[in-house]
Write a structure and sequence with these properties.
381 residues, alpha/beta, seven-stranded mixed β-sheet, 14 helices
């Protein structure tokens, strides 16, 4: 008979606490009348963890590739249950209290997250930096970027259906696996909820595998890379609008604030902001196409429409117009220089034509090159 629930625990030298975790899970099965199994995803333990698990009738899955994510992917793939509960084997999570998760899964939720901040964090269970900086900040960024109402992105105790696991198509091999699961569930429009859970102090005497700064950066890097809108588009749009507005003002006339005058030299920097911001937006478009076409991100509703709005022909025409405008302005600037008998240009009015001319030509070339590469990435269309 196929088990309803598989409890998957990643394991790397967890001999001190593995037995109590397995026994709690098995006691839960017996008490609640749940047909379940315990799967130990062993990642190369050398302290006899495998033997402990086998003696307690847990199923051991040997995962060769190192990493938290690799261990879990191997264990979850091998699990036979309709629903999966995953949790660390360090006795910090209570496997005897999984019923709130299972009830939500039976209701039809695809992913059920634990929330340690609502359930309670016992004294000494979470380092100060994790509790007041790392988890709150990364969880806030995750909610902002992916519009998912989860208060604790990094709770290690969570449940999901086996069907949802395959839909998420998880790839990451390290600790960022925890963030990827929520992000992929959100991007695939899966039903997500959370339940309070209690975090207890780690039962091991050795240091945890988690590295605060390295793994925190990996989580942040993952959130940024999976949200090109926040990584490229929004910063680029802000920078581009700032550069465009300030450049238009400075092209018209110098601006004096108190005793400081902003003139053509400042114009060079504002047009640079315009170009850099525009480059960010182009990278957003290219990244979006690449990630979708390679199966890293799901298609948005308007994804296919952008190939009708943005195509090679339109890009070449718009880019060519910008180049022509730049050439015309260059001819005007040349005539100003000719009036000076090709001498030193001390008149700032000439530079007010030269700088927009160069900027226009650079924008045109960028648009042309973007259109070509954009079309190459979208050849499947």
């Amino acid at each position: 008979m196929k088990p309803e629930l598989s409890v998957v625990m990643p394991c790397l030298n967890e001999a001190e606490t593995l037995a109590v975790c397995i026994e709690k899970a098995q006691a839960f099965f017996k008490r609640e009348g749940v047909h379940g199994e315990v799967v130990i995803a062993d990642n190369g333990s050398t302290d006899g963890s495998q033997k402990i698990a086998e003696n307690l009738d847990a199923r051991v899955v040997h995962v060769v590739d190192k990493g938290y994510g690799n261990a879990l992917i191997g264990g979850i793939t091998a699990a036979k249950g309709t629903y999966i509960m995953m949790g660390d084997a360090d006795d910090s999570y209570d496997f005897s209290n999984m019923m709130p998760y299972l009830l939500k899964l039976r209701e039809g939720f695809d992913l059920v997250m634990g929330n340690r901040f609502k359930g309670g964090i016992k004294k000494g269970a979470m380092p100060f930096l994790h509790k007041y900086l790392g988890n709150p900040v990364l969880s806030f960024i995750g909610r902002l970027f992916f519009k998912v109402k989860i208060g604790d992105f990094h709770c290690g105790l969570r449940g999901f259906s086996k069907e949802a696991f395959f839909k998420m198509d998880l790839k990451t091999t390290g600790m960022e696996f925890a963030s990827e699961m929520i992000v992929k569930a959100s991007l695939n429009n899966l039903k997500i909820t959370e339940v309070p859970t209690i975090l207890s102090p780690d039962g091991r005497t050795r240091p945890p595998h988690l590295n605060t700064w390295r793994d925190g950066w990996r989580h942040l890097r993952f959130l940024l890379l999976y949200s090109p809108k926040w990584l490229f588009f929004i910063p680029g749009l802000i920078l581009m609008l700032f550069g465009l507005i300030t450049s238009i003002i400075l092209i018209a006339q110098p601006v004096t604030i108190n005793t400081i005058t902003f003139d053509v030299h400042t114009l060079l920097f504002t047009t640079a902001c315009l170009l850099i911001g525009f480059q960010f937006i182009l990278f957003y478009g290219l990244t979006k196409v690449f990630t979708v076409e390679n199966g890293l991100l799901p298609k948005s509703r308007n994804y296919d429409k952008q190939f009708k709005l943005l195509n090679l022909e339109k890009g070449l025409i718009v880019g060519a117009l910008f180049v022509i405008i730049g050439i015309v302005l260059s001819v005007v600037a040349y005539s100003y220089w000719q009036e000076l008998n090709f001498g030193d240009i001390n008149n700032s009015n000439t530079l007010r034509v030269v700088i927009p001319a160069i900027t226009s030509m650079l924008l045109g070339v960028q648009i042309i090159l973007f259109s070509i590469f954009f079309s190459i990435l979208g050849l499947k269309k």
